[in-house]
Amino acid sequence: MKTVPTPDISSEPRAIDTSRRSFLQRAGQLALAGGALPLAIDLAVLGEAAAADASDYKALVCVFLGGGNDYANTVVTYDDASYAKYFAIRNAGGIALSKASLAATLLNPKTPLPDGRQYALNPAMTGLANLFNSGQAAVQLNVGPLVVPLTRVQYNSQAYALPPKLMSHNDQASVWQSLGAEGTTSGWGGRIGDLVLSSNGNATFTCISAAGNLVFVSGKKAVQYQVGTSGAIAIAAVKKPLYGSAAVQAALGTLIQQPRTHLMEDVYTRVTARAIASETVVTAAIGTTSAVQTVFPSGNTLADQLKIVARLIAGRAGLGPARRQVFMVSLGGFDTHDNFNAQHPDLLTKVSAAMTAFYNATVELGVASQVTAFTASDFGRTLATNGNGSDHGWGSHHFIVGGAVKGQAFYGTAPPVSIGNTSAPEDQWHIGQGRLLPSTSVDQYAATLARWFGVAEADLNGVLPNLKNFGTAAGRPDYPSDMGFMNAT
Predict the structure, then answer these.
(1) Is residue 119 part of a domain?
(2) What's the confidence (pLDDT) of residue 19?
(3) Is 80 exceeded by the pLDDT of residue 248?
(4) Per the record, a Pfam family (predicted)?
(5) Domain containing residue 44
(6) What DSSP string describes 92-105?
(7) Residue 426 pLDDT greater than 60, yes or no
(8) Is residue 45 pLDDT above 50, yes or no?
(9) Each residue of 189-213: pLDDT tens digit?
(10) Mapped to the 3 state alphabet, what secondary structure does 226-273 carry?
(11) Domain holding 137: CATH number?
């Protein structure tokens, strides 16, 4: 085999320096007086951008499945030949789904897959199956972190660059969100946000997390604004009388916002004032949009997060206005080493019901073609069973949902169903036990979304540092830099 030089990966995202200036930029993100300050207060965006580069509205919504979702029981191989192999492998641990149970969620693509391959969704995912079959959802097959395209032989040679610390939860969650190992301080959603700050009348509301502090929506200028499922996170001490005294409340409010002569104290008070003002703006913006009629399922934390995202989108005119936004939501529990049969279907029920309700809300709001939701996860899992579940893997299948999606279609390459360790062709697309070797990189997946969002070609490599190693320009047309699942507008 011809040796290919390891590509330059020096442009990989690096941690922001810990200089005094950088420290000051982040200092105001600390908690105060019993209420958390939303992480929206980067000093670089204290001066608002008045210009609007975009006159329309678009939003990206990352739905992160924390813990590593099991691909094989989510998008389930269905054609007779492939299903027989799947059943033989998974039934050994009692986690194979019956073919009869999959009939109602069979996916019917406009263009059939090669070699007669077919897939169905888990029986718990009727909502997403219906969205796929009606053209509002697509499936990206076997996507995961890659630095360069790889075959199994190349992976085993250890002569090619690999994502850091494969199969580690923290690192691979970070790689999916930021394209860098744990500790990386900007995500590709946040770096997209950096490019569109001037499109929004209030830059604070460009990147929003409803799932806590997650790197995906942190940029180098755009810092994530965190919300709760009921709305803005308030500083409790200035929202109601302290010790029964409105005077004490007013005094504290003045104290924590007034200018200071000490540089660091002054930064903190300015950030606090900004947080208080932002909470007021968000509360006013969504206060008039509580009449969103779409019913979101109860007892579903992912649905709760997506509902507040829908309310923020409905209230975007009051947020500056906002014309380009990146959102983050998340559901945990996917680390299914055991108790698989009880745990996994319940999780997928929540994902399908929440994403379906969210799509319906975008239809209600008239923005279905302007909002795209997509899934991501730490990694896929083994096709082989450990006896009561599945173990950490690499590549996985993911969903893209929205009116601008070229739906009712599969993208990428359907992997063979195999767990062997031989030189046979079917064993070249996993690295053992059915851990999929990705045939599409996160960079390719993300670039397809970023282009639709409006990111210019010249800016893509700054957002996605490994993209330069894929596509025609890199001599790899078999790994296109655009997977094709989004319409142009």
Answers:
(1) no
(2) 37
(3) no
(4) DUF1501
(5) 20-70+127-382+396-474
(6) GGT-PPPHHHHGGG
(7) yes
(8) no
(9) 999 999 999 999 999 999 999 999 9
(10) EEECCEECCCHHHCCCECCEHHHHHHHHHHCCCCCCCHHHHHHHHHHH
(11) 3.40.720
What angle, 0 to 180 degrees and rounded to 10, lies between the N-to-C axes of helices 263-287 and 301-314? Answer: 90
Q: Quick count: other Cβ atoms within 10 Å of Cβ 14? A: 13
Exposed (0-12), middle (13-18) or buried (19+): which is 483, by Cβ within 10 Å? buried
Distance CA 92, CA 119 (A): 21
Whether residue 32 is predicted with pLDDT greater than 80 in this model: the reply is no
Q: Report if residue 149 sits inside a domain.
A: yes
Name beta bridge partners: 328: 62, 209
User: Tell me: the pLDDT tens digits for 278-289?
Assistant: 888 998 999 865
Q: Is residue 485 part of a domain?
A: no
Residue-wise pLDDT tens digits, 75-110: 999 999 999 999 999 999 999 999 999 999 999 999
Alpha-carbon gap, residue 209 to 301, rounded angstroms: 14
**Residue matched to tokens 């899934």:** 375
What are 226's strand-pairing partners?
209
Answer yes or no: is pLDDT of 22 > 80. Answer: no
CA angle, corner 214, sides to 332 and 67, nearest 5?
Answer: 25
Average pLDDT, the chain: 88
pTM for the model: 0.88
The total of structural domains in the chain comes to 1
State both tokens at 272.
């606090």
